[in-house]
Amino acid sequence: MILSIESSCDDSSIALTSIADKKLIFHKKISQELEHSAYGGVVPELAARLHATALPKILEEIKEYLQDVKAVAVTNEPGLSVTLIEGVMMAKALCLSLNIPLIPINHLKGHIYSLFIEKDEEFPLSVLLVSGGHTQILYVKNYETINLLGNTKDDSFGESFDKLAKMLNLGYPGGPIVEKYAKNGNENRFNFTTPLQGSNEIAFSYSGLKNQVRLCIESFKNITEQDKCDICASFQKTASMHIISKLKKVFEKHHFENFAVVGGASANLYLRNKLNTLCKKFNINLLFAPLEFCSDNAAMIGRAGIKAYELNRFVDIDKIVINPKISKVRVF
Ligand code: KG4
Ligand code: ZN
Question: Can you give the pTM of this predicted structure?
Answer without folding.
Answer: 0.96
